[in-house]
Amino acid sequence: RVDGSRLWATIHETAAFGGTPAGGINRLTLSREDGAVRDWFRDACLAAGLEVGTDALGTQFALRPGRDGARPPIAFGSHLDTQPTGGRFDGVLGVLAGLEVMRSLNDAGIETEAPLLLVNWTNEEGSRFAPAMMASAAHAGEFTTADILSRRDAAGISVAEALAEIGYAGEEPVGARAIGAFVELHIEQGPILEAEALTIGVVEGGQGIAWFDGTLTGFESHAGTTPMNRRRDALLGLAELALAAERIALAHAPSAVITIGEAVIAAPSRNVVPGTVRFTIDLRDPQAATLDAAEAELRAALGEIAGRRRLEAELTRIWRKAPVPFDPRLVDAVETAAGALGHPHRRIISGAGHDACNLAGIAPAAMIFVPCRDGISHNETESATPEDCTAGADVLLHTVLALANG
Amino acid sequence: RVDGSRLWATIHETAAFGGTPAGGINRLTLSREDGAVRDWFRDACLAAGLEVGTDALGTQFALRPGRDGARPPIAFGSHLDTQPTGGRFDGVLGVLAGLEVMRSLNDAGIETEAPLLLVNWTNEEGSRFAPAMMASAAHAGEFTTADILSRRDAAGISVAEALAEIGYAGEEPVGARAIGAFVELHIEQGPILEAEALTIGVVEGGQGIAWFDGTLTGFESHAGTTPMNRRRDALLGLAELALAAERIALAHAPSAVITIGEAVIAAPSRNVVPGTVRFTIDLRDPQAATLDAAEAELRAALGEIAGRRRLEAELTRIWRKAPVPFDPRLVDAVETAAGALGHPHRRIISGAGHDACNLAGIAPAAMIFVPCRDGISHNETESATPEDCTAGADVLLHTVLALANG
Ligand SMILES: NC(=O)NCCC(=O)O
Ligand SMILES: NC(=O)NCCC(=O)O
Q1: pLDDT at B397 over 90
Q2: Cβ B62 vs Cβ B118: under 8 Å
Q3: Rounded to the nearest 5°, which phi and psi values hold at B250?
Q4: Phi, psi of A303 (to 5 degrees)
């Protein structure tokens, strides 16, 4: 069993890096705050006797050797970056529970057959740079390192520049480390476990995700002198699109969700009819076919709106992550561990994307969920109980031990 | 008659200050570019033998003494600041035509009875600081100088700081100069004169304007895990409000116009349901009663949307400018000048706000419009012909002479 109070203490100690007055964390990937928590994590891993390395995308690895150095390590972890309105558990729990697993094994003097590898993946959140789960995707060969290094944030700063800025452009080539299996502990970020009073979610897979960048272009004109029927107002076009997106998602209820999370008027002024609006769309569904159908419906709606309002429309799909099924043997291993520890559990599909979904492309992967209050995440009020965090870390420990010694 | 080619040359010479690649001007009030064009204007006035002064809000005055120093000067001018997507004529024409009037009188050796006063008003546009026509309103006693100095832009910089930054915090108390009458030449910024092939608009008054700051607050949540029916999406609330505003304006057709020119998601992220959106509303109508009715309808729509979507809504009216009728005697003087010069003309109501609307509160005021291409303004493609600009400057010259010698 892990030391739950030590785990809880590290969760709250690291919450100071980027901590917000409202009790959340604003720690965008590769920011100064992210650099500080990385330093903390490196030092903690070194203090636990782990061998620490960093790859060219800043992902941090901490290895605990096993008896059989020829076996690929059993890996686990998550991410320490957060949303701008992030909470204390999303990602953080998985990394610090992994650290707690290492510390607990040290305390108990347990040696494993396979080596163990704790990972802090760069830019899981996808808020500062797109796509989300960027570094694990590159590790799994979905993008080249050069491609990812060239991605830019809204201020025009590239991943390469941001890595250099905080000193986390590592030496290791991306994807060089073989991984025998990957297990990720995470808060559910949804309401199901809490509603059913369960402690553990045995995650069977992740739903599909499509991300889009869009632009609507009309014509800037005077707010006082341009009659309503002569306007080409890009914001009104976006307004119709946002409501159409909501209708499309509801038409594929209850599974599909569509979100316009960013929308920016290019040259905003109170007395100018908006001429250009740039926006993003996030579309998800567990079924690939529904993802495709909803995308077609979004494009049709955008075309109709743009035509009627005399706007030019552009919509580029910048990312598509197909639905991911996890490895049945690993899912069973998680379920067995939860059962052996006596934690009430159920199988569940992840609504969020996770690094484990990328690792699933190159190794057996699975996830462990614990409940969070009201299903709230990507919000500063995100909350989970110490008991549930401890239970999740225990399931992680037992799953990892079963895999490393099996 | 003025020297039309000299006027045209100054319009294009000053367009270099803040000139954009698309041929427009981005010269927000009290910006570095605004400071540079002010320096140019001061030097040009000094070279024309005028007595130059600046008030505490940065408004520039250039006096040409008359035979009767006891008479309050006949004032004219407009503004040299622009929108972020501004054109070459909005405001600029009125100031530079005023300079051309001074130069032409010098060339012809004409002395007037009353002194003449050319004015470049600070922050007519209202894009960087609210409200529009800020300095002329303070001159007319609608706001105190201290109040205006404390207004802040989106970056938090106050008017006082911005004035100091470009060295235009002048010595003169605001409103200290008596003004006998005010005449402003401006492009129409609407389509009427062009459509009717007329050269001069004899402006009878300006429509009413109300400006609002609004906030919609919902709850940030995860774009992948939050079911559509559990969301409190502030952007969807704004989308409905924008479309309701359009419907309300159309219900008061053809006169009322409503514009949401600024809309900002507080903590934007692709995979976060927007929790807070801040926005502005610009509402106009020539009738005060319609202004009030439309405001009530906007508030009702916002309340209904917020209630249904479980959002909190705030809407603050930060400015209300009642419809302004110009002085009948001055309007007649403009019409007489246009007729005497043989320019086809009609009476017209201004859809835009102008400094003359504020001056009307303390002195007889009137305006002269010339056509602009397709009625386009607050856009980099704003355009007017040299012939129309010259005609407008000639009408200004004749009106001013009639008033100063009458
Ligand atoms: N777990 C998580 O919130 N990941 C961020 C990527 C996503 O939007 O699903
Ligand atoms: N003339 C002009 O464009 N003034 C700006 C203030 C307004 O929006 O009417």
Answers
A1: yes
A2: yes
A3: -65, -30
A4: -60, -45
Instruction: Please answer whether residues A151 and A134 qualify as being in contact, where contact means their C-beta atoms are separated by less than 8 angstroms.
Output: yes
Measure the CA–CA gap between B272 and A127, rounded to whole angstroms. 9
User: Would strands A345-350 and B200-206 be described as parallel, antiparallel, or unpaired?
Assistant: unpaired
Chain B residue at shortest CA distance from A279: B270
pLDDT for residue B254: 87
Ligand 1 atom nearest the C-alpha of A353 is 9
pTM for the full model? 0.95
Residues 6+ apart with CB under 8 A from B36: B17, B18
Residue length, chain A? Answer: 406
Residue closest to B385 by CA, chosen among B203, B199, B190: B199
CA–CA gap between residue B289 and residue A166 (Å, rounded): 59
Which of B84, B219, B273 has its CB closest to that of A259?
B273
End-to-end Cα spacing for chain B: 19
List CB contacts (< 8 A) between B377 and chain A: 221-222, 225
Distance CA A34, CA A41 (A): 10
The DSSP bridge partners found for residue B124 are none
- Euclidean distance between CA atoms A244 and A264, whole angstroms: 19
Strands (E) in A55-153, as ranges, are 60-64, 74-78, 116-120
- With CA atoms as reference, report the closest residue to B7 among B74, B72, B94, B68: B94
pLDDT at A110: 98
Torsion sign over Cα A16, A20, A23, A25: negative
Give the pLDDT band of residue A254 (cuts 50, 70, 90): confident
